[in-house]
Write a structure and sequence with these properties.
glycolysis, two-stranded antiparallel sheet, binds 1,3-dihydroxyacetonephosphate, alpha/beta, fructose-bisphosphate aldolase activity
Length: 335
């Protein structure tokens, strides 16, 4: 394992006030979002959409790394330049989603386990050779009356740790994403309790599997009230509870924490990140940034609507949302 190279890549991904762009929607997820926005669900429209993103002027000022889906790594812009080359030319480090999705866990109703470990060492060799420097694996944890179970959390943590160790062997920085879903009517206290348990177990297992903490990035959920909870915690409370939870669970050796947005509105996600920075400036041991998909892309995708004549304005909307999150990382955003 080249520890120095891993550490340097992780630090570059966390540099300045930049963040990551998760543009790694699987075919099924991308098609679902296209259907909602009235966009044809074909390989060519997915290619056009990814071209819109990677050719957005000055995106590299705001985004340090972009997470791709396998299909996108093999695609090119209309002028024949590969998307990977376009990202690198724009100063953005290309990464790859490696998990193969969350499936029902047998004997654990309502709980999911992420698949994709078989053959991962070989896949990693190919991706590393193609220039992909970092990766992502998403585990999904669901809150309901009697779940999550510890058995489910341990199974997902084990897969995350196996994936992370394989990435580091290949010289690829792993983003470890244990997402506690915001679906449900639970309180923010319950989200705190579950997120804390999940992060404790994830780091216990990462350490047991000898994952090099200085060469990884954590991608957690924020601590929030459930989407359908009657009482919704305010921005300050979300910032306080999220930072408290992370300080209790994430070793200071980890160079960076990059949040998923998880279905929050673009404004809420940015406001929460900004409040964490304005309230806890210089009090956090790791870089704290964004790795949003929906909260950066949604306004641009909806405006684009699959029409070539809308590309330029959609790119401006994408740039705007990305730069708003840079301001949030400086603690300077208010909706
Ligand atoms: P959202 O920001 O839309 O939650 O997506 C982030 C992500 O990469 C989920 O795996």
């Amino acid at each position: 394992m080249d520890k120095q190279a891993l550490k340097e890549t992780a630090q570059k991904l966390m540099a300045g006030d930049k963040g990551l762009l998760a543009m790694d929607e699987s075919v099924a997820t991308c098609n679902k979002r296209f259907a909602e926005a009235g966009i044809p669900q074909t390989i060519e429209y997915r290619r056009k959409y990814r071209e819109l993103i990677v050719t957005t002027p000055k995106l590299g000022e705001c985004i340090s790394g972009a997470i791709l889906f396998d299909e996108t790594t093999k695609q090119s812009a209309a002028d024949g330049t590969s998307f990977i080359d376009l990202l690198v030319k724009g100063g953005i480090i290309p990464g790859i989603k490696l998990d193969e999705g969350a499936k029902d866990q047998p004997a654990f109703p309502g709980e999911k386990i992420t698949e994709g470990l078989d053959g991962l060492r070989e896949r990693l060799k190919d991706y590393a050779a193609a220039g992909l420097k970092f990766a992502k694996w998403r585990a999904v944890i669901t809150i309901a009356a009697d779940i999550p179970t510890d058995a489910n959390i341990y199974a997902n943590a084990h897969a995350l740790a196996r994936y992370a160790a394989l990435c580091q062997e290949a010289g690829v920085v792993p983003i470890v994403e244990p997402e506690v879903l915001m679906d449900g009517d639970h309180t923010i206290e319950r989200c705190f309790e579950v997120t804390q348990r999940v992060l404790h177990i994830v780091f216990e297992v990462l350490i047991a599997q000898r994952v090099y903490l200085e060469g990884m990035i954590l991608k957690p959920n924020m601590v929030l009230s459930g989407l359908n909870a009657v009482v919704q915690a305010d921005v300050d409370t979300v910032a306080d509870e999220t930072v408290k939870c992370l300080l209790r669970c994430v070793p200071a050796a980890v160079p960076g924490v990059a949040f998923l947005s998880g279905g929050q509105s673009a404004q809420d996600a940015s406001a929460h990140l900004s409040a964490m920075h304005s309230k806890y400036k210089n009090k956090l041991p790791w870089a704290l940034t964004f790795s949003f998909a929906r909260a950066v892309q949604q306004p641009a995708m909806e405006y684009w609507a699959g029409k070539d004549e809308n590309v330029a304005v959609a790119q401006q909307l994408l740039y705007k949302r990305a730069s708003i999150n840079n301001a949030a990382r400086r603690g300077e955003y208010s909706p």
